[in-house]
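Customer escalation, tier 2.

The customer says the design service returned an amino acid string that "doesn't look like it belongs to this structure." They asked us to rerun it and document both sides in this ticket. The original structure tokens are below, unchanged.
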């Protein structure tokens, strides 16, 4: 059933990553992007507008925690496969850099990161007891390339367990 109202908001951030699977050899060299993440959220129960405010939910209430996480944790982070040898290098030589490494269970492709981000946003909503659901999350990687994650069953994509993407905290890795 379609929802009566969808809220959409975006945030821009800078990041760097590298892909080591071999499928995109140019991306094996660490490089960066200025990305925009856009989320679309709805009320879980398709509730009508609040009669006192004529809003589904106040924008700041829906986006503040999300924007804070993007700004403090994701912006200017280095995205790596959790098994990338650079993780061991940072652990042995630049331990302070590890806190700025966003680690994924496989290559940090835009697709996988979109799923991780969507799970993180769901955790923020659940912890705040907000009846909101992210129906779509888009990462605009370049002016011409974007990935849209509409998956509702993220457990089909992301490993179960107490990983950073399932937790409503500031984390971007499990180190």
């Amino acid at each position: 059933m379609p929802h009566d109202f969808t809220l959409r908001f975006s945030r821009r951030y800078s990041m760097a990553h590298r892909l080591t699977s071999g499928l995109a050899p140019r991306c094996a060299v660490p490089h960066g992007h200025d990305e925009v993440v856009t989320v679309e959220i709805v009320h879980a129960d398709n509730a009508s507008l609040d009669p006192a405010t004529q809003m589904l939910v106040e924008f700041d209430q829906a986006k503040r925690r999300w924007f804070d996480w993007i700004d403090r944790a994701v912006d200017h982070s280095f995205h790596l496969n959790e098994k990338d040898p650079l993780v061991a290098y940072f652990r042995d030589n630049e331990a302070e850099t590890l806190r700025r490494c966003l680690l994924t269970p496989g290559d940090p492709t835009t697709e996988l990161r979109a799923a991780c981000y969507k799970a993180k946003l769901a955790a923020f909503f659940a912890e705040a007891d907000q009846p909101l659901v992210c129906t779509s999350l888009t990462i605009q990687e370049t002016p011409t390339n974007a990935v849209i994650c509409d998956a509702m069953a993220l457990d089909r994509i992301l490993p179960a367990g107490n990983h950073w993407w399932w937790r409503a905290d500031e984390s971007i890795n499990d180190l």
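Tier 2 assessment: The sequence is consistent with the input. The chain has one domain: 7-18+32-166. The chain is about 25% helix and 25% strand. Sent an explanation to the customer and offered a walkthrough call.
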